[in-house]
Amino acid sequence: MPVRALFIVNPQATTTTPRARDVIVRAIASDLDVDLVQTEYRDHAKELARQAAIEGYELVISLGGDGTVNEVVNGILTAPPEAERPAYAALPGGSANVFIRALGLPPDPVEATGAVLEALRTGSQRTVGLGRIDGPEDGRYFTFCAGFGWDAEVVHEVERQRRRGRRASPALYMGIALQMFLKGEEVRDPSLELEVPGRPLSKDLYLALVTNTTPWTYAGTLPVQPTPRSRLGLGLDAFALTQADALTTADLLRRMLSPRGVPPAGRGYVTWHNEERFTIRTRRPRAFQIDGEYLGHRKQVDFRSVPKALRMVC
């Protein structure tokens, strides 16, 4: 019997056309017993994926960007304990698709569909680790990154621009990041501190990034790598700025865009590798994001690594 699958499609996905979506749906329906549903609001994909686990679907497929992936992952992993968690296949439909590309799938959604269908035929699956945040506001899994400070402010502003009709793109992200750096308000605020159990407290940090894999994100086709040793099969990595002057920041951006990424140690920053858990605090509420989604301004977030959390078809 064909695999029973729920196919969750984000109709607002920025890099797929209606024609491409039709091609993908037909290809999947030819191999699977598939039910198709489109998302209608924020966190709808989470609700649909959670219900898919409760109803006994063997597989959840999504077509969308990193935000859709995050919602589906959280839906699957927050299903009741008695529900058997379905496997997950993610198809790229956003501007970056960081987690999907980290799994080795093609960035083109049609090609990725072919790769996923081939993986289903051969039984190819991979169990991956995730990150999780816990705090007074909520608990949530993330697939590839989280950030406090400058990068989260950029994400917040991009979301504002998208609500006004702008299309998310690498150029929009980079333009807003540059504007904020030149203004300097959020960028030059050393109010963050990072604490790893059993290690000295790192204080007066301007920016803190947490990664579950590399790259942290993409600038167009170029991978941006503040933590190049980060891997889905290891614990969490982190990167923090200890200086925020123009020369130091420019040099670090150059290194992030280089093939090797930022070295483990150097001037103007600190890094952590393969950590099980840690906490980031700030003296005043700062912008916070996970997987490119703004979650509000926060004063403290606890992070932990969750090994072998999710079965991926890839």
From TrEMBL:
Keyword Kinase part of the UniProt annotation: yes
One family name in Pfam for this protein: DAGK_cat
The protein's name: Diacylglycerol kinase family enzyme
Alphabetized PANTHER family for the sequence: LIPID KINASE YEGS (PTHR12358:SF106), SPHINGOSINE KINASE (PTHR12358)
UniProt keyword GTP-binding, yes or no: no
PROSITE patterns per UniProt: DAGK
Family: Belongs to the diacylglycerol/lipid kinase family.
